């Protein structure tokens, strides 16, 4: 593997100053977990890194529909290395349920980085989450999921609508102590692996639209020990191959109601908040893997008589990667911090929960963009080799391209963000936190960020509903950029002046839309963090 990758074999935690500083800033128990993170960083840089490449290129999950005796099984066959990584990482879902925090879970998710591998863990964690909060009668199943003895899944999308969940045609009929579901779940990640899925369906007679949907727990095997649903096929995907995604056919399948039927859409959207945070952290984890590949490349490749890293434009590109990486990671952990404090709230929720959701849309959307741009830039910085599937770097761009799509594309993030403003007034908590922070910093760039926040939100408030939708994505982006400037300044406050410079660079490029200032050309602490002096 070290012939095809510069990142392979390195400790992905020990090398990551941004991660360590951000965890130190947000997570009071960070020091107590540092040893574990160092060990996990070594595992992520070696076994996980090699396995995700191997699965992507040579060992995709294969659907086996029948066993030797002719019984229908619909199970996927995984390579032994794939199975081993899943077993060795199952524990990352445990901390929030054992008195720990979401920072812990997401720090480990970031180190995994690969969206496919992390997806299996995320959907298993989301299933445990739904049981933990709303169906404690299934706590034994939750324990199996958290131990890695069972896999979960979140099956909502149908062929006629992923964003538009209200278009679900899945139907549920009561049958004694359980329900019978008939549905065609068209994008079912974890297909063939899942032991318990959570899935949306409309109880017979319930109202149309999203509010009529209930959430159910769907076991792979029913009470009689028979296969409870079929997997029609696995999708042929351009990336995320380490998670099998397929089509699930439910035909009178046995299922159990989670919580109250009328609140199903709330539970579903709450569950989506968890996966959107995972998406944000996975996007930045993916981007960081590509960045590590680039740092190796620019120190070795020569062009026009000098190493790549000696050329001003290469330093400019490295600056761009460093700015996006620090900003995106800080934004993700800020949203995680707010979620960690608010996640126990239940419908109709608290203002702290709505604020966490507001920040989750901001983070999900922007980090997906950072990851897509950064991984494409990483390929370009490898020149022709970057385009070859033979080397590790190309893999990361293909992986990054899922992050803007699943868990809701950018338009959906913008519309949901708008909803947190119009219905929940979540922007008020945001203004209360960020305006004083930027005023206290007081630099020219902090003022620009503050003005951006005020003017963009004021403008949104002045628009008709149609116009507000038209502008929502732009405002979401502006808020994301101004937030990252503020958070980078906040990191500088804890004593690291590198982040003050990163804040200025971020504001210059993303808010003023000017080129990075040329003082950064000589600032190796910015563009060359991780490169030996
Ligand atoms: C690899 C992979 C794995 C997946 N795994 C799962 C899974 O396990 N479980 C699951 O439930 N789903 C899963 N999905 C589905 C995924 O979540 C959906 O594809 C995604 O949410 C988008 O839904 P859609 O495909 O129906 O697109 P659509 O909803 O048809 O959207 C198409 C486009 O229209 C835009 N759009 C939609 N509505 C509006 C509007 N009102 N205004 C403006 N623009 C709009 C969207 O932003 C998007 O760009 C998976 C998808 C992929 C690719």
TrEMBL record:
Pfam families: Acyl-CoA_dh_1, Acyl-CoA_dh_M, AidB_N. Transmembrane segments: none annotated. Keywords: FAD, Flavoprotein, Oxidoreductase. Residues 263-416 form the Acyl-CoA dehydrogenase/oxidase C-terminal domain. InterPro entries: Acyl-CoA_dehydrogenase-like, Acyl-CoA_Oxase/DH_mid-dom, AcylCo_DH-like_C, AcylCo_DH/oxidase_C, AcylCoA_DH/oxidase_NM_dom_sf, AidB_N. GO terms for molecular function: acyl-CoA dehydrogenase activity. Residues 153-251 form the Acyl-CoA oxidase/dehydrogenase middle domain. Residues 8-141 form the Adaptive response protein AidB N-terminal domain. It comes from the Bacteria. Its cofactor is FAD. Belongs to the acyl-CoA dehydrogenase family. This is Acyl-CoA dehydrogenase.
